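subagent[fold] <- orchestrator: predict structure for attached chain, return tokens only, no commentary.
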Amino acid sequence: MIQKALRAASRAMLTTCVIALWALKAEADANRGEVAIVFESGDQAVDAYRGQFTVPENRSRADSRQLTLTYVRFPATSAHAGPPIIYLAGGPGGSGIFTAKYRRFALFMALREFGDVIAFDQRGTGASDTLPTCESDVAIPLTTPTRDVEYRNLYRQAARSCARFWAKQGIDIYGYTTVENAADIDALRQHLGADKVSLWGISYGSHLALAALKQMEDRIDRVILASVEGLDQTVKLPARTDAYFDRLQAAINTDMRLAPVFPDIKGLMRRVHDRLDADPLLVMIPSSSGEPLPYLLQRRDMQQIASAMISDPARAFMMLGLYAEVDAGSSGRLAGLLERFITPGGRIDLRPMSTAMDVASGIDAARLELVRRQAETSLLADNLNAPMPHLAGVYDGLDLGDDFRSHPISDVPTLVLSGTLDGRTYPESQREAVSGLSKAQIVTIENAGHNLFMISPKITDLIARFMRGAALKTDHLRVDLPIPKDFGG
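subagent[fold] -> orchestrator:
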């Protein structure tokens, strides 16, 4: 009888404790001020919570205005979940909430096994963006040739004009740095009531995660990185872009449909560049008014188009198709593409968050000189990250300095996913970026590009194994080369 009474008392005490814990959790949720929502992605819907918290725009100023940052929280599905997992979008300027709604929804859902998954809109992005885009009073001539040095000077002039515009709007651009962005992650951690968080980032999101490792290592549990951009790699080395084209050519040579069409992609691109240097092409761009907009296509334009399209192999093949078109003396598809980017008047538009973040991460003098030397002979010159390095140092005191750009040293477990056909962040650069992470596990994915998370279920499986702390069993995967439909077998 005594034992039965003790067991009953124990069960009652356990029940009371569970109820108390749930009450504490409910109180904590209420203190976060989250709102229950139904989050929709296509024809799928899931219960989630939308939350907000405030941070100073510029923590170095006592009188700084406050920013309201927004996130969506997908609750963990496991009773033994770990710390919250914060998604860090690329760009800079990408929206975590937008990403969760579309391309990577399935991966957001899969990661709920390991903790609450947070789709975070960084300061100045998505639902955390109240910043006006600046339409400067500086214009790029649409129908007369513009030398590269003139183009760079116009962009610097526009950046200074926009700084004055933003200041009049009460915006402190000195608050839009990766250091401030990383401090926001710690503020979000505290808002969530978590001792630690895990970080999941791609491209600029990996850049931000590396900065966070330097600022709050003891509050980070695990890190998942893809297409890593090191803290000193805002501006990529032109010679490594050339090496990427060699890898792309080697991949093309393995396919009997592509190899005869693109036997020498570097030769094709240089031929088009030389032709446009000698004789720029007048392209008539469709417009909503019905009147075609004349635009003089120069070599720099093609280099910037290529820079925007080589992130992933499927887009790179489309880019090569555009080069082949111009090489043949045509511009029909190119005109349709330019319609999305060229506006009457040619005024330079700049977004404060993405502009300031890149200028702040900056580039040191030695690397800038190396970029300039390599750009003289490189296929895309220094256009891969335009308007950087052209805006380097344009805002006095914004550059975070060489200490910021040093590689993090950390023993936090880190998974790195790197594609061999990534045209924006290159495999050798990614290895350098994480060289100070003693527990980094690098998995190379053959034929993958920059946006690699969803190209194979094997990647989701790898991430799940890493989050469980299990051995990965491989440091290499292979996916099929994405052959364009135009090249039917």
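orchestrator: received. Logging for downstream: Residues 1-10, 12-28 have pLDDT under 50 and may be disordered. The chain is about 40% helix and 20% strand.
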